[in-house]
Each structure stands twice: as C-alpha cells, then as structure tokens.
Amino acid sequence: MTRPSRIRHEPSGREEPGRRTVPPQHTHLIKRTPPVEGGTVSVEDVNTRAWTVYGRRQLARSCMPPVPDRLTWTPWEAVGPGAEVLGDIAGRRLLDIGSGAGHHAVHLARTYGAHVTGVELSPTQHGRAVSVHAGVPDVEYVQGDVVGYLAGAEPFDAAYAIGTLAFIDPHRALPALRDGLCAGAPLILSLLHTDLHGRGPSAEVAPREQMILLRDDPPLPTRMWVLAPQLWEDLLTEYGFRVETIDLLRHPEGSSPVVQQLVRARRLPGRPARISSRPRTTRPPVPHAAVGVGAIVLGEQGLLLGRHRRGTLELPGGTVEAGESFEAAVVRELFEETGLTARPADVSPLGTLVDHVGGVLRVTVGALVRSWRGQPSTRPDESVGDWAWHHLDDLPDGLFVCSAQILTAWRPDLPIEHTPAHFTPFAQGTPPRTGPDGTL
Q1: Parallel, antiparallel or unpaired: strands 347-357 and 217-224
Q2: 190 pLDDT band (50/70/90 cuts)?
Q3: What element of type H or E holds 403?
Q4: Cα torsion through 120, 122, 123, 128, rounded to 10
Q5: With b meaning 16 or more CB within 10 Å and e meaning fewer, what string describes 426-440?
Q6: What is the pTM of this model?
Q7: Which of 329, 312, 320 lies closest to 398 in space, CA to CA?
Q8: What is the DSSP string of 243-254?
Q9: Could you read off the pLDDT of 276-323 as tens digits, one per residue?
Q10: For residues 60 and 55, what is the distance between their CA atoms, to the nearest angstrom?
Q11: Hey, how many other C-beta atoms are within 10 angstroms of the C-beta on 148?
Q12: End-to-end Cα, the chain, rounded Å
C-alpha cells in the first residue's frame, strides 16, 4: 500500500501515469473479486490483492519513484507542510505505515538522520523497496501486517502514513498504533477526503469501493475508509490520541476535485478513560439461534397451561425481543397470551436451557412468576389459548418440549419425558427446588 495518489490521475512523468478511480456507476465494467468458500473476500484481502497486482506491474516495468527532496503529504508539490510536522526526528525511530516503494523512508533517514522502519503488507510493493533501497543506512523494510508487526515491536517515537491508513480498518489499526507508539509520540496521517469524482467523505465508519485504473491494464478494485474529519477525530480520541489539527489540502490551482486531509495527532500518556467496544463488521451476524422465555405460573388451582393451535400444551412464553431483559419478556408474553399482568420484580428467572432443533441453537429461559393480577383468557390473534390450571401431580400428556424442559429444570422430580437440554442455573449451586406448597 502506498499514498492516495495511487487513486488519482497523475501528470506525465510521475511514478504511475494514467491512474484514476472509477465512479460507482461504472463498476459494472469491472470483474468482481470472487467469493471464497463460505463467504466473501474480506476488505483487507481485496486491498492486499490489488496492491500485490499493482506492485507486480510496477516491478515488471521497473517503475520506481525517485527519493524526494521534500516530504509531501499530497500528490502536489509544495502543498502543505513537510517533514517538520513530525517534530525533531534526528536519531528517533519512525514507523512508515504502508511504505510502498520505500522512497519516503530513505528521504527521512538521509535528510533528518531518523531510523525508519517501513512496514508493507503487499509482497510485491515490499519487493520494489528492497530491490532499490536495500542496505540504505538506518532504513529497514518489513513485509507484513502492521497490526501484527506492532504487537511484537518496541514502541516507536513517531509514525506516519501517506494515504495508507485508509486501507485498514481503523478499529484494528488505531489500537495497535496506540500500543505501538511511545507516550507523546506524533501520528501524522494523510487521508483522502474528496476523490477524483467529487465524492466527499462518509459519515459512517465503513469502507467504500474505489477503483484504480491503470493504463493498458484492467482496473483494480480496492476498499477504503474515506471518513469525515470529525469521524477520524472521534476514532483517534476513542483509541488514546489527542488530535491537534486536521487540515484540508487542495490543488494549488483548483484544477482537481481531489481534497486531502492532513491529520496531526499525538499519543496520550495513558489508555483511554473508557474501554471501547465495537462490532466485528458492519454486516449483521448470520442467524443461528433462537432465544425464548417460558413462565411458570403456579397458583392454588395448579399450573397454568394453554393449548397451541398445533395441539401442544405449554407454558405462557415466547421470543425475547431486542433490548428486553428476560424478566420484561416474561411480563410482556404473559400479558399478550393470557391477559395476566405482572411486574418484572415478580419474575425470578431460573436459568438457561440449551438444545438444538434443525441445526438452530435454541436457548430457553425458564422463570417463576411469584405474583400476578387478573384471570387468564384466550387472547385474539395469539397462537396459544384455552388456558387452564393443572395440578402438578396430574399433568397432561403432549407438553411442548421447551415447557417440559423448563418444568423439569425447576422440579427434577416431575415425571416428564423430553429431549435433553443443557441447563445452567442463574444462581450458584444446584437448580432451584420447591417446597410442598409449590413455592420456591
């Protein structure tokens, strides 16, 4: 991976002439990355493949950018600051994230006396760097994932990425950089803000498709996190950095719609005050489990059971809805199915029962309802009705299996047959038992 200039058309004479991105409406012309068995190729696999193909192409053409006289953070010369934003780097250890052809690292080592380690995921891009710059004093090139590399490296005094951090999930990269930098170390990021087609940054932390067009070669699809400045600031703050400035850098003559962000941040001395959490991906999980509740309502007349329209007899209960506690789900289902009202404080969950039905993991939580109001009645549009009371010593045949599992978890002495389920009580110790009067 290298700088964002790789997704723009560059004037003749630059490293990669003829390159530009393809807008989404033209992507039907591009062969899609094939799915792997069991799912699609990951974002980082797509990017690695693209930069590997790109590096192979440049190696075949012996195309190498010259070592610059000045560090630039944009595709345009003399736009924005130079290496001074890194601070005093003489004798300091610098991390070049996605070092590509390696020319920036050589410039910083030769001009400023820094010790630079360039980490590049693409093996062919790494090959470009070592084919020309191997043996340059104070420069080291590493081929591999920067997150994995930082896990075993000594902390660096500064780090920079010229366009490359946008190809890595920030929720993966930023925690690794926090742990891989010394306290107070600067982190300088050049990031795409608006692309060649005028598309501005995203307002959500999600990658989007950018296409690299190569002259005389098929285009290469990549996925980039092109995020609004406030999102980058929020992410950096979340992961233990202080953002000092975010500058938007434009073409000096206004002849290009491309806008770059230059983010200057600094690693804070300690960890964030709060530990963050996040989903693994923006896609929802594959459905593979069903979670439900069943209510044991035991009164002087016996145990409350209803008849399902398919013929089974069962406890009041149903599916737990998003955001509900087990107690709240019991209260809701009890009222919806029977008309009885209870409070969450009246409900005592007993534990979880886990079994499998047709390849689906079924989790059932049984609960004892200690107090309620009203009389049970058949409710319109419910699948269970004809509610009746049954003595525990004279329970009917044909119980729904989940209701049977709940009852034997509550009272193992009840002579009920059912398919096995693993029961884990919520309280420590043995499963709850009842006394002679049927109370816990």
Answers
A1: unpaired
A2: very high
A3: helix 401-410
A4: -70
A5: eeeeebbeeeeebee
A6: 0.58
A7: 312
A8: EEEEEEEE-TTS
A9: 666 666 667 777 889 999 999 999 999 999 999 999 999 999 999 988
A10: 9
A11: 12
A12: 64
